[in-house]
Amino acid sequence: MTTGVAHTDGMRDVTTLDERWAVFHRWGPYALLAMASAVSLAAADALGMTGGERRASVVLIAAALLIQLWWNRAARTRPGPSPAGACYYAVRWALGFALTWLNPLFAFYAAIGYFGAEHLLPRRLHLPALFATAVTLAGSQSGGLPPNGPTGWALFGAILAVNAVLVALFGHFATLEEARSRARAETITELERTNTALQQALDENAALHSQLLVQAREAGIADERRRLAAEIHDTLAQGLTGIIAQLQVAANTPEPAVARTHMDRALALARHSLGEARRSVHNLAPVALADEGLPEALRKTVTEWSERTGVRAGFTVTGATEPLHDEVAATLLRIAQEALSNAARHARAGRAGVTLSYMGDEVTLDIRDDGRGFDPLAARERARTRAGGFGLDGMRARAERVAGALTVESEPGQGTAVSARVPLVRHDP
């Protein structure tokens, strides 16, 4: 904003100065001609002007007035140096010189030659034109033209030399001022370009910001959908699978006590799955982590899974346990639940083991079974299982969401080992 204000002020100053010079070049010659005429005719008797000189002065004054009237009209179509401007300057100088020859006081009008040479004449004629004007003024200052005797010529020469030096100095200063004005104009032009580019950049940034907001919103919606899909898979889908398995056993057993046991398990699973579904919708930690740490939640998960499936399973903790961040703990618990669910549905395992290892700045979760195994490369080619779950891709996505990684080692007939490695991010107090 400061640059824009400075740029506007600079433009206003330059415009004002140019307007003032334009007014002077238009009306200044009239004013100087009127003043010189009044002073010169008033002092005509004192200077000894003859009647012929007075009549010649009146004619020259009229000519000067006419040439100025003509130029003020012609200048509207000739803003810069031109042949017409050079002709006007030369005629005006000649009239000023002739009037000063008749009466030295007409030098007031002849002094107009010092002004306007830069916009009337080509650059190469600037100094000659100023020197010609200095000749006229030196003649007036030395007592009139032509000089009187050797003393008059010597005085004229000395005054002319002084005027020539002044002309050279003022010409040099004018050149410097012109260079500074040109540099200022270039700076103003550059500022205009910079401001335009800056405004375009601001507009582009605003559009980009809006686009990023839309993309962030869409990414947030997509991420939330993936989270809910994964949570539903880990809660409702697995819970329903367990309920179906318990109900099938209850329906196929002839013993009421056994059937009742499996019905109770199905009911407990239904209640547990409902609670987990509600917590997933509200983005809360799994119910198993609500009151206990990850090791105990994993221990209960493994025990319940073993009781439900009839597969022998063990749980081990290595390293110094530490309270983990809720997101990290929930991620590892969900991975364990999914891996155990896959083992129950697909592996036909007789034994499984889960190990939680605290290793410095990392936590590792390993789930192993002695089931029939599979080809991991072939499994990765399928984005989803035939049942519609997320499987290995879902576990891998969960681990990557907390800057971790998941690896799977398995061969047909050789069992399966799933290992999740995540950063050890401690629980926020």
- The H/E string reads HHHHHHHHHHEHEEHHEE
What's the tally of helices? 13
Oligomerization status of the protein chains: single chain
**Largest sheet composition:** 5 strands, mixed
* Estimated structural class: alpha+beta
Question: Compute the gyration radius: what is it?
Answer: 51 Å
Number of strands: 5
What helical percentage do the residues reach?
55-70%
Percent strand equals 5-15%
Enumerate the spans where pLDDT stays under 50 for 5 or more consecutive residues: 1-7, 384-389
- Overall residue-averaged pLDDT value: 82
Overall shape: it is: rod-shaped
- For the biggest β-sheet, the strand order reads 1-2-3-5-4
Span between N and C termini?
Answer: 46 Å
Protein traits:
single chain, 429 residues, alpha+beta, 5-stranded mixed beta sheet, 13 helices, 5 strands, rod-shaped, disordered N terminus
Summarize, please.
By secondary structure, the chain is of the alpha+beta class. It has 13 helices and 5 strands.
What does this protein look like?
Strands 1-2-3-5-4 form a 5-stranded mixed β-sheet, covered by helices on one side. The longest helix has 104 residues, at 149-252. The relative contact order is 0.06. The chain has helices at 2-42, 44-47, 51-74, 83-102, 107-110, 117-120, 126-141, 149-252, 256-281, 294-309, 326-347, 376-380, 391-401, and strands at residues 312-318, 351-359, 362-369, 405-410, 416-423. The model is unreliable at 1-7 and 384-389 (pLDDT under 50). The chain has 13 helices and 5 strands. The chain is of the alpha+beta class. Helices cover 69% and strands 9% of the residues. Helix 3 packs antiparallel against helix 4.
